[in-house]
């Protein structure tokens, strides 16, 4: 599964695997792909540094990348005047949280109470805060990232700011940006992005409204000669072959790694839900981050879609609003509410396997697809 891009980056297979789990990212690289570690969950630079140190020791010398989240637009508080205008750390987070309406907080409390979600124990940490959406947090992550020999910087929500692009290029690190339309892709190209990830409607996480079969060739034509990675609805070798036939230089896979043995999912109940889910059991919802993101359909997403629910808040307010609730749902494994971002390929994820076994299946499926195409083309007698 080699392409010009995979050869340029020094990987055997043009499979770029996005994951929040260092063990999965390292295993993807060791299997001959390109592991990409998602950084959004790291609120403290030292935590990211710790895991990049671990990656350095466990990738077998193969290349890997990091994915950050730097939204082009988000709700921001007014800057305070005078000495209070430090604009950093918990002060900014507190000022952003102050923008969350009390009615939204009450809706979250009522939903948790309806399903019997326990309150945190006295002194118990509130859990993960989605501060990685904040610009200054993402920039502090970059201060760590560029201390390591990363071979790719990706931004999950479009082209990063111009100064971040310049900084990456100064370190000779190519930049990838996700796009949900040809218009977005052309904008990324004009900004100086090196690789465009065409992410179709079927994908997990933040997506647009165009399916991969339509989107991939549109983006390939729109940004030629930039390389394009296809994302969304890809979980088999046959689907990788289809993406390359549409002009992609590789594929960007995220959901398929969630049920690998190396994944550090916080809940066995969630793993069971993923393994039991069909391709129709996901929904695009703003309930998690404030932007449309495909995830498992649960009682939580249904509550936010109900007629009497408040409208989800813009990013990053929604993520900050629900962070504690999501942590409690996960900690206590409240199954009706338990979910995660995942794409429609969840219907193919029916057993826990090591990352290497996933790669073996991808390779065999790719070879079968190429053999079929050769027979159709009359090249095999």
TrEMBL record:
Keywords for this protein: Flavoprotein, FMN, Monooxygenase, Oxidoreductase
Transmembrane regions: none
Pfam families documented for this protein: NMO (PF03060)
Listed GO MF terms: nitronate monooxygenase activity
InterPro entries, A to Z: Aldolase_TIM, NMO
Protein name from the UniProt record: Nitronate monooxygenase
């Amino acid at each position: 599964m080699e392409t010009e891009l995979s050869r340029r980056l020094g990987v055997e297979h043009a499979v770029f695997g996005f994951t929040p789990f260092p063990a999965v990212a390292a295993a993807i690289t060791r299997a001959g792909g390109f592991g990409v570690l998602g950084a959004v969950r790291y609120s403290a630079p030292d935590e990211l540094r710790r895991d990049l140190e671990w990656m350095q020791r466990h990738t077998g010398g193969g290349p890997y990348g990091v994915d950050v989240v730097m939204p082009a637009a988000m709700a921001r508080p007014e800057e305070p005047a005078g000495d209070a205008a430090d604009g950093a750390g918990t002060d900014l987070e507190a000022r952003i949280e102050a923008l969350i309406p009390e009615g939204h907080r009450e809706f979250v409390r009522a939903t948790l109470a309806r399903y019997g979600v326990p309150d945190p124990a006295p002194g118990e940490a509130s859990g993960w805060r989605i501060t990685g959406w904040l610009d200054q947090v993402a920039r502090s992550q970059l201060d760590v990232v560029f201390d390591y020999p990363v071979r790719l910087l990706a931004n999950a929500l479009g082209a990063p700011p111009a100064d971040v692009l310049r900084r990456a290029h100064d370190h000779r690190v190519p930049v990838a940006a996700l796009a949900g339309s040809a218009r977005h892709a052309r904008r990324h190209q004009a900004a100086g992005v090196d690789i465009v990830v065409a992410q179709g409607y079927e994908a997990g996480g933040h997506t647009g409204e165009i399916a991969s079969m339509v989107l991939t060739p549109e983006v390939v034509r729109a940004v030629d000669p930039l390389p394009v990675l296809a994302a969304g609805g890809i979980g088999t070798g046959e689907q990788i072959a289809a993406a390359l036939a549409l002009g992609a230089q590789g594929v960007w896979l995220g959901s398929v790694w969630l049920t690998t043995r190396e994944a550090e999912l916080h809940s066995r109940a969630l793993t069971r839900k993923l393994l039991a889910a069909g391709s129709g059991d996901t929904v695009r919802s703003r309930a998690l981050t404030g932007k449309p993101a495909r995830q498992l359909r649960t009682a939580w997403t249904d509550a936010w879609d109900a007629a009497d629910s408040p409208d989800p808040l813009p990013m990053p307010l929604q993520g900050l609003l629900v962070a504690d609730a999501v942590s409690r749902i996960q900690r206590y494994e409240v199954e009706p509410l338990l979910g995660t971002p995942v794409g429609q390929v969840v219907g193919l994820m029916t057993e826990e396997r090591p990352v290497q076994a996933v790669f073996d299946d991808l390779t065999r499926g790719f070879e079968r697809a190429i053999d079929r195409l050769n027979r159709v083309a009359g090249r095999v007698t």
